[in-house]
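Deliverable D4.2, example record:
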Amino acid sequence: MSASASAPAGTAPVPARSDGPAGPVAPGAPAPAAARRLPAVDWRVRFAVLCLIWGFSFLLIKVGTHGFAPLQVTLGRLVFGTAVLGAVLLVRRERLPRGPRTWGHLAVAAFLLNALPFTLFSYAELTISSTLAGICNATTPLWGMLLSLVALSDDRPTRRRVAGLGIGFAGVLIVLGAWQGFSGQDPTGTAMALVASLSYAVGWVYVRRTLSGAGGSNVAMAGSQLLLGTLHLALVTPLFTSFPASFPVGPLLAVAALGALGTGVAFLLQYGLVAEVGPTTATLVTYFIPVIATAAGVALLDEHLTWNTPVGALIVLAGAALTRSGPRRART
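Output generated by the structure prediction step:
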């Protein structure tokens, strides 16, 4: 979607501090001069398109699982996403990264940021709504904050961020209706969606520690990561699923859109936004994803919505926003 950017987004990691799931941009690679040129389309329009693409990704996952096994949905998503970035690399004549160490770290990043979370969200949506999956995806900044306290010595907590962590997870309990014993929610599917979001956060920490100075362009790093993720799924999927007996048009188009748009094109959009307006503004897309996922699920899939879902989602987003805020600077 990131993360990860973001989301179900997520392709390769974002420079600087970007905890969002919505799809990562490559680690520490400077934007080339071409990426800093004034684009033909205003960044606000591209930002809105990115929000829509990643927000609808959860609906596309749900539709995809109506015709294919979850592993097949993930494999198809990665194949189409890799094809888009591969085509861009060919047009730009960019080289893939070199060195076995870099490829080894990219393989781990591909598992944590693509293969595992994409698959978990696909399995989760067999039993939970796309709305709930989208809200669970918004917990990635909360997991990122929690992990940073342990794994990143340069990311010290503040009272505001710790408060955001508590508020965010309180919002999760409200979304799930904890006072009703989580009535109406499938615990296994919900746990899978939350673990998928945790995987994004673990992936971000891993990338910051291992690939921040790897060099190479963002597109080359992300394309290589998606290629490795595709190989992961290509090896695993035949072991646990049989070849589809048919290829229904609706689910097939959903998987194609999920990969080509939600993973390939969305990365390119986010990369351009990061280069133009910076990672902080670009990753604000994280906060629009659950809103769009909820609206799409209710309007197009007739998913049931109770009062605690939007209220809890707003609290989750408020907590996530606090975890990403820095200390106040003294006025001079």
